[in-house]
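Thread: N-(iminomethyl)-L-glutamic acid complex, take 2
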Amino acid sequence: MSDILFIKHAAQLLTISGNTDKPAKTDAMRELNSIEDGGLLAKDGEIIAIGTTEKIQAKYADEIAQAKQIDASNKVVSPGLIDPHTHLVHAGTRENEYAMRLKGKSYMDIMHAGGGIHATTRATQQANYDQLYHESKLRLDTFLTNGVTTVEAKSGYGLTTEHEIKQLEVAKQLNKDHVMDVVSTFMGAHAVPVAEKENPDIFVDRVISEMIPEVAKRNLATFNDVFCERGVFTPEQSRRILEAGKEYGLIPKIHADEIESYGGAELAAAVGAISADHLLKASDVGIRQMAEQDVIGVLLPGTAFFLMAEFAQARKMIDQGLAVALSTDANPGSSPTLSLQFIMNLGCLKMGMTPEEVITATTINAAHAIGCADKIGSLEIGKQADITIFNVPNYLMLSYQYGMNHVDTVIKKGKVVVEQENLSTCNRHVSSV
Ligand code: NIG
Ligand code: FE
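Output below.
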């Protein structure tokens, strides 16, 4: 018997349709293609009809008679949120460094003194597979209850072939076991190990000649990322690593221009990266080159917030034609959050994005940033039925009532996987003034 789901009477059903072939830019980022009194029918995990409730009821009476039905009156239905940049698999937390930063120490000073990424690397190397799996699984559970149905996950806290592979094996297994989809990125070039500080090129050579071939042979990643920043990897080292990955079929991504303007955005355009992420200090030339080459800008305002830095210039980037996606950057050092909804709030309040743009940036554009837009990121016939229902009567409320989890129901591949109506009751009896 087939598995049928019918969602009816959505106050607003945000389809975000029309941008499956290419990411949404400028005006298209503000077009959510919302349907009032919206309905959606999914069969065996795939969307088979979408439109007004009335139209679907008229045409699909037989299917609806067999379907599980969800009444989304007074609620917003959107594609499941997608987080295109996380450091999901790691061990431990770094609240001690947070306290140091509050007293004035900088993120980079802490890292150069052997803390920061190095601290999490030590913890991750020491953790066995099962510990890493368990910690990371709990994070996925939290993402899911916060409305996210797909995440990207990077390695980069192993820094040896053995431990990078351990991290990627955990992500691969979680992709199989967990209801969420996990898309993997190899990031062996996340930091130069402390012991090799004086000879970074030897480490770069090892990433290229040992780690990348092994990761590719075991089919452990889709993307290859590098932290291109002064004192970490130079643009030239980053270019070598990204070009080497391309020879093994790994698609380039870059942590670019986070702390200072360092040519990362320009490099992303030159190597044909799918995305350049952070971009707090990206140059105008770099942004223009990215837009010309269709590189997506993945912005991580949680990191600017948590590091008390200046935010990326999202408004300017979007107006200049850059396709923008948003992500948590979830990691224990620079952005220890699992709330993509809060990141959407920051997008509006701190980066000048509109409420429509932040939704596009966490759905279809996020899907493009991880190469999955053919199956997720919008509610269209033929796509996977990954759906988040928010307990708000209109989408403006998502960024208006900030820092809250508005999720009511999460559906993954046509199945209800989260139902938490009782957690968010404040909007049941209110009406807008
Ligand atoms: O994207 N900037 C580099 N990497 C991560 C932070 C990693 C960490 O501090 O553990 C980021 O912000
Ligand atoms: Fe990151």
